[in-house]
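Re: the request from the purification team.
They wanted to know what the chain is likely to look like in 3D before they choose a buffer screen. I agreed to run a prediction and write the result into the notebook, where they can find it.
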Amino acid sequence: MLATAGAGVFRAADVLWAHARLGLLWWLGCLPVVTAPAATLWLIHAARAHSSGEVVPAGRAFVRYVLEATAPALRLALGHLAASAYFVLALNSAIPDGILSTVIRGVVIAALATWILTVPWSFLLLERRRRGAWDAIRMSYLCALRRPGAAAMSAASLVAGAMLLWLVPPQIALLAAAALPAAMTYIPLRCLETVPTRYLDAQPERTGNR
């Protein structure tokens, strides 16, 4: 029994170290700020590789991946930043009271809710499909329409992970900050896998630059 318990502890420590290593590399990739979206794509790629038993890219492969992914990932992040600014302005704009105001705000709130559901999957799809920011946004909307429950679970899991990181005791805050980012990718990845592969890997009508 002691041997079994000891083996379980070692396995848990090994998993924790693997996630912490990925998280530390992710934080390192985020330091220049403009490479943070690309580092997030690498983290998704690394978590997918780790879960399937493949070799996780590190060292020069990590640097090369981040540099190559910086432009498309930054375009995607800026697109979401622009969308968030629009929704903030739309919800705080002065609209005369009445039926028209209610309709407009209802439409904006519905669009905001849909956008929130698609943000996590857009990064997953950019990493998976490698066909550019617009393709990732378009496909994330289409996939969310097919699996709204899975898309909602993906977004909720990221919010829960961020809250957990905020609430952890100070004694383990550094360890949690290193290990949680990688662990937070698994639920969105599993949720996206509920979408049929023929949709996830569907060829676009027009191919563009990455």
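For the purification team: The chain has a mean pLDDT of 86.
Please add any questions underneath this entry.
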